[in-house]
């Protein structure tokens, strides 16, 4: 399997998640808009904050998975299932480039 394309894709995705993290961090830590006095506005702000925090957590988790995948590529075990050791199908790696287990193990989780 051609890994160069996968590495490029993972790195592009990582950059995308990094810039998302920068935006979410800005929103969480440098909030400029004051808390609204209007109750329904407050709810909207809270909902928005929760959404931003969910996006933030998601991006952080994805970066961890991408880093793990890049490390696996480095170590030459990228196409090997981390739990049972069998070959991970190319189609699965193309669909989920940062997966570390084969479809059988994923179904058992
Ligand atoms: Zn497996």
Indicate the topology:
Layout: H1 3-29, H2 39-74, H3 90-95, H4 103-108
SSE order:
HHHH
Give the fraction of residues assigned to helices.
55-70%
What is the arithmetic mean of pLDDT?
A: 92
Q: How would a crystallographer describe the biggest sheet? A: none
Which structural category do the helix and sheet elements fall into? mainly alpha
The rounded distance between the terminal residues' Cα atoms is 26 Å
Give Rg in angstroms.
19 Å
- Find the count of extended strands (DSSP E, 2+ residues): 0
Q: Bound small molecules, which ones? A: zinc ion
Q: β content, as a range?
A: under 5%
List low-pLDDT spans: none
Outline: elongated
Number of DSSP helical runs: 4
Task: Looking at this protein, list some descriptive labels.
mainly alpha, binds zinc ion, elongated, 109 residues
Architecture overview:
The protein is mainly alpha-helical. The protein has a domain at 3-78. Helices cover 69% and strands 0% of the residues. The protein contains 4 helices and no strands. The protein has helices at 3-29, 39-74, 90-95, 103-108. Helix 1 (3-29) packs antiparallel against helix 2 (39-74). The site of zinc ion (ZN) has 8 residues, from helix 4.
How do you describe this structure in short?
This protein is an all-alpha fold and 109 residues long. The protein is built from four helices and no strands. It binds zinc ion.
């Amino acid at each position: 399997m051609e890994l160069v394309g996968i590495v490029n894709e993972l790195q592009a995705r990582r950059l995308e998640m990094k810039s998302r993290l920068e935006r979410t961090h800005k929103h969480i830590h440098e909030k400029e808009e004051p808390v609204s006095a209007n109750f329904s506005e407050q709810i909207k702000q809270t909902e928005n904050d929760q959404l931003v925090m969910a996006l933030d957590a998601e991006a952080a988790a994805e970066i961890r998975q991408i880093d793990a995948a890049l490390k696996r590529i480095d170590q030459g075990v990228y196409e090997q299932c981390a739990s049972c050791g069998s070959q991970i199908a190319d189609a699965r790696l193309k669909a989920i480039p940062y997966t570390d287990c084969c479809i059988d193990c994923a179904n058992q989780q």
